[in-house]
UniProtKB/TrEMBL annotation:
<feature type="binding site">
    <location>
        <begin position="42"/>
        <end position="48"/>
    </location>
    <ligand>
        <name>substrate</name>
    </ligand>
</feature>
<keyword id="KW-0479">Metal-binding</keyword>
<protein>
    <recommendedName>
        <fullName>Cytidine deaminase</fullName>
        <ecNumber>3.5.4.5</ecNumber>
    </recommendedName>
</protein>
<dbReference type="InterPro" id="IPR016193">
    <property type="entry name" value="Cytidine_deaminase-like"/>
</dbReference>
<comment type="function">
    <text>This enzyme scavenges exogenous and endogenous cytidine and 2'-deoxycytidine for UMP synthesis.</text>
</comment>
<dbReference type="GO" id="GO:0005829">
    <property type="term" value="C:cytosol"/>
</dbReference>
<dbReference type="GO" id="GO:0042802">
    <property type="term" value="F:identical protein binding"/>
</dbReference>
<dbReference type="InterPro" id="IPR002125">
    <property type="entry name" value="CMP_dCMP_dom"/>
</dbReference>
<feature type="binding site">
    <location>
        <position position="53"/>
    </location>
    <ligand>
        <name>Zn(2+)</name>
    </ligand>
</feature>
<keyword id="KW-0378">Hydrolase</keyword>
<dbReference type="GO" id="GO:0055086">
    <property type="term" value="P:nucleobase-containing small molecule metabolic process"/>
</dbReference>
<feature type="binding site">
    <location>
        <position position="89"/>
    </location>
    <ligand>
        <name>Zn(2+)</name>
    </ligand>
</feature>
<dbReference type="InterPro" id="IPR016192">
    <property type="entry name" value="APOBEC/CMP_deaminase_Zn-bd"/>
</dbReference>
<comment type="similarity">
    <text>Belongs to the cytidine and deoxycytidylate deaminase family.</text>
</comment>
<dbReference type="GO" id="GO:0072527">
    <property type="term" value="P:pyrimidine-containing compound metabolic process"/>
</dbReference>
<dbReference type="Pfam" id="PF00383">
    <property type="entry name" value="dCMP_cyt_deam_1"/>
</dbReference>
<keyword id="KW-0862">Zinc</keyword>
């Protein structure tokens, strides 16, 4: 599967990052199971704690438009290395992940690696656990 377009969209979203405090800009792009793509950037706040990560911005945009099953998410932070999602974002990804969810970590649209949810969040606590 070629994720270069999804990574490119994450790179474009990164340009909109509002990160005046950390200066660490992140972009994300999710593809829902109907093929629709939603993008997001990190949005910081003077209170620091109210900051929203790029991944959650993109995911919440998808969910608020009615798409709760996501097939893949691309994430781009610094271009010299891969940026993995933070712990809270991993948990949010788990909530809306399709069976075969892919986490795509990009440096640029031509250089990316693909991870599964099990690889980045082994033993995730999910809605299935609530049924036990
Ligand atoms: N950040 C993200 O947007 N995604 C991540 O997975 C890691 C961290 C943002 C939050 C904050 O604005 C900045 O990067 C530094 O932590």
């Amino acid at each position: 599967m070629d994720y270069s377009e999804l990574v490119y969209k994450a790179l474009e979203a990164r340009k909109k990052a509002y990160a005046p405090y950390s200066k660490f800009k992140v972009g994300a792009a999710v593809i829902a199971d109907n093929g629709e793509i939603y993008t997001g950037c990190n949005i910081e706040n003077a209170s620091y704690g109210a900051t929203n990560c790029a991944e959650r911005t993109a995911i919440f945009k998808a969910v608020s438009e009615g798409h709760t099953k996501l097939n893949a998410i691309a994430i781009v932070g610094v271009e010299k290395d891969y940026t993995y999602p933070c712990g809270i974002c991993r948990q949010v990804i788990a909530e809306f992940a399709s069976e075969d969810m892919k986490i795509v970590l990009g440096k640029n649209s031509g250089e990316y690696i693909v991870k599964t949810l099990e690889e980045i969040l082994p033993g995730a606590f999910t809605k299935e656990d609530l049924k036990k």
